Amino acid sequence: MTKSVDVARMAGVSRSTVSRTLNGSPHVSPDARERVLAAVARMEYKPDIVARSLVRQQSRTIALGLFSEAEDQALTALSHPQRYFYVELLTSIEGRTVTAGYDLVLPAHRSSDTNRPADYLHGLRARRVAGALMVALDVADPRVQVLLDAALPVVFVDAMIQGAHATYIKSDNIDGARQAMDHLLHLGHRSIAILCGPPQSLTGGERLLGYQQAFARWGIQHDPNLVRPTAHFEIEEAYEATRALLATRRDVTAIVAVSDMMGIGVLRAAYEHGLRVPDDLSVVGFDDIDLAAYTTPPLTSVRQDRAALGQGAVDRLIAMIDGVSEALPLIVPTQLIVRKSTAPPPAAGR
Amino acid sequence: MTKSVDVARMAGVSRSTVSRTLNGSPHVSPDARERVLAAVARMEYKPDIVARSLVRQQSRTIALGLFSEAEDQALTALSHPQRYFYVELLTSIEGRTVTAGYDLVLPAHRSSDTNRPADYLHGLRARRVAGALMVALDVADPRVQVLLDAALPVVFVDAMIQGAHATYIKSDNIDGARQAMDHLLHLGHRSIAILCGPPQSLTGGERLLGYQQAFARWGIQHDPNLVRPTAHFEIEEAYEATRALLATRRDVTAIVAVSDMMGIGVLRAAYEHGLRVPDDLSVVGFDDIDLAAYTTPPLTSVRQDRAALGQGAVDRLIAMIDGVSEALPLIVPTQLIVRKSTAPPPAAGR
DNA sequence: CTGAAAGCGCTTACAG
DNA sequence: CTGAAAGCGCTTACAG
Questions:
Q1: Rounded to the nearest 5 degrees, what angle is found at the Cα of A310, between the Cα atoms of A309 and A313?
Q2: A256 touches strand C (CB under 7 A)
Q3: Confidence class of residue B111 from pLDDT cuts 50, 70 and 90?
Q4: Which conformational region is residue B299 in: left (phi greater than 0), alpha (psi within -120 to 50 degrees), or beta?
Q5: Residues B217-240: tens digit of each pLDDT
Q6: Is the CB of A28 within 7 Å of strand C?
Q7: What is the percentage of chain A residues whose pLDDT exceeds 90?
Q8: What is the pLDDT of residues B50-78, one digit of tens each?
Q9: Nearest Cβ partner of B94 from A95, A106, A236?
Q10: Which of A67, A80, A83, A87 to mutate to probe the B interface, most B CBs <10 Å?
Q11: Closest Cβ opposite residue B106 in set A49, A98, A110
């Protein structure tokens, strides 16, 4: 590897001048700058990122933290199907991070480190990360408090956690659910069920809220028995919940699932129950993962703007790192994508 | 942040001894070792990873490289549905890397860097990565040659590329396709079509080979017209190919798709064509992504052992980094998972 | 504008 | 076994 002293020699200047040129210092004569740049190009010199990080006491690196589960590994949790949305979100995060000139690092740690949150933070500091992006962390996650107390810039994605150096970005779930409900109500549905996921979850809770608000706004009394929580956001749970629902409630003409994967479970239960979607039953999913366009029938879904979420998270974090932005939350609009799984309710009832 | 000099002071030894203790040198007296360890624990000392990397001229970091597409970003390509398998594979890679004590880094780069492969390599060197894991790279990818010429340990995942310091790991695709075919042939199918993906692709090609070999072994003449390539591994292409196939070939009773996502496209086409799966038509997918268990009906699929693939890749790479292993390829067995999408062919034909 | 020097926090021969 | 010293490759006040 060529190093700065080699470049300096070739350009006939000192290492200081090489460094200044590369770091955009105004105190370099045009002549020197030109010679340095020529030498850099000739020798294909790239500054040693490790050495630079050491002296600057900061690396151009952003740590990625995921989820709250008792899993040892970050991405591991993604293997559950209901996590495909987050995968697609990571895609957007990764793209933005990398083109912004930051490395994205998944820090090594022993499983004990996430249990001992101080160790987790130490791990980040030892790596000199410039900031951290924490995706879908539960508020009760032990890492949260230690992160909030630290001076490290943090953006929580899909959570609502704030601090002096920490903020969050998330989709407008309430409005998304409202759009879905307006769509169904306009089509003429009145007996609309919702599979709302775990009662304590933020996204499930907000989407349920939008559901309830829509009824209120339309002046329609809604049946609390049509609100069906599930333990997680699993396909299988949605499938079971739908079976139970369809078995007892013949009046239901539409089901809102708070994720697309759950929507897939609903579709399967409907299919097995002998109901045609959308003729007999309308189904709305949430997230609009890529797969939603390919279910049978293609799923009407509330789109979370992954590009905006990912880019927003990264840009806000980098702005905080650079000190040009406050730690302010960002709420990203959602949009209903109407496909083939919704239609007016059957005239004769089911 | 506490540093080694603080620990040294508290333990009443020199920084050298602190370092030796932490790095497992045998030349430390039990007494000194104990005092150092106590001080480390008390002060929650973690060695600065950046400084350590600089002096060791190597970081405990593994770079992750993905795909060959003209995409600027690595994970970006994953947003296509057919890439869910790789996502699940990454999960396994990440878990193993992180618990092995290595950071996984997605290196920042300008898009030009992948076009100028020398720059890409320089980027890795500048980060002092210990090795690289390249997933699903096309042999023609410009980075391949420069990586092969470098002394950097590299493991190619799902590719067949070797060099002095480079090797690969992949699934036994041929045998997987053979298992799928044996299953169908045993059930009594004879007119079996295959959607084999792009003609030049390694995985598609190998799976096609297994398909052909099975016919040969059973002594059955197979109809080359039932081999249907698609431009990529897209759901939509499989859907279209199946429509075309079903429209003209009423004799076909089983379809093998070389990915689960393509299998989903087949299921949809069959459904729209009014065919019941598996009564009228059997369908086999490939990869066994998590979703395969949740299609309608659940998809029989050839499982790629993601855990073995991911762990094998990481372990082999680390062994190469540590100099305890040669650059030898690894072929991971596949296994047919029989679910509900396969059954004997209809007695009366379709 | 420019260079010599100090320093980032570690590790590792080198003496002892 | 142990410590003082040198060095990893940069950047950045400090003089000039």
A1: 80
A2: no
A3: low
A4: beta
A5: 999 999 999 999 998 888 889 999
A6: yes
A7: 58
A8: 999 999 888 899 999 876 554 444 555 44
A9: A106
A10: A87
A11: A98
Contact B87 A78 (CB under 8 A): yes
> What element of type H or E holds A140?
none
**Per-residue model confidence as pLDDT tens digits over A128-164:** 899 999 988 777 888 888 899 888 999 999 989 999 9
| Tokens, residue B291 | 């979703």
Q: What are phi and psi of A167, to 5 degrees?
A: -145, -170
Binned at pLDDT 50, 70 and 90, residue A12 comes out as very high
Residue nearest to nucleotide C13 (CA to C1'): B16
Residue nearest to nucleotide D13 (CA to C1'): A16
Nucleotides of C under 7 A from a protein CB: 1-5, 7-13
Q: Does residue B50 approach strand D to less than 7 Å at its CB?
A: no
Report whether the peptide linkage leading into residue B297 is cis, meaning its omega lies within 30 degrees of zero: yes
Partner-chain contact A76 B95, CB within 8 Å = yes
Q: What is the DSSP string of B213-248?
A: HHHHHTT----GGGEEE-SSS-HHHHHHHHHHHHHH
Nucleotide nearest to B26 (CA to C1'): D1
What is the reported pLDDT for A70? 44
B155: closest CA among B97, B195, B228?
Answer: B97
Distance CA A7, CA A2 (A): 8
How confident is the model at residue B73, as a pLDDT?
A: 46
Cβ distance of A296 and B78 shorter than 8 Å:
no
- Rg over alpha carbons for chain A, rounded to the nearest Å, is 26
Residue written as tokens 């740590």? A63
Contact A46 B98 (CB under 8 A): no
| pLDDT for res A71 | 46
Q: Best residue in B73, B86, B268 to probe A by mutation, most A CBs within 10 Å?
A: B73
Answer for the pair B304, B335: CB distance below 8 angstroms, yes or no: no
The pLDDT assigned to A350 comes to 58
Q: Within a 10 A sphere around the Cβ of A339, how many other Cβ atoms?
A: 17
Give the dihedral of Cα atoms A218, A221, A225, A226; nearest 10 deg: -20
The answer to whether the Cβ–Cβ distance between A94 and B109 falls below 8 Å is no
Q: Do A247 and A228 form a contact (C-beta atoms < 8 A)?
A: no
Q: Supply the DSSP string of A63-118, one letter for each residue.
A: EEEE--SS-SSTGGGGGSGGGHHHHHHHHHHHHHHHHTT-EEEE----HHHHHSHH
Give percent above pLDDT 70 in chain A. 92
- Asked if omega into A199 is within 30° of 0 (cis), the reply is no
Residue A191 has pLDDT above 60, yes or no: yes
The mean pLDDT value for A78-91 works out to 69
Stated pTM of the model: 0.86
| Interatomic CA distance for residues B96 and B313, integer angstroms | 9
What is the CB-side half-sphere exposure of residue A250 using CA atoms within 13 A? 4
**Per-residue pLDDT tens over the stretch B284-323:** 999 998 889 888 889 999 999 999 999 999 999 999 998 8
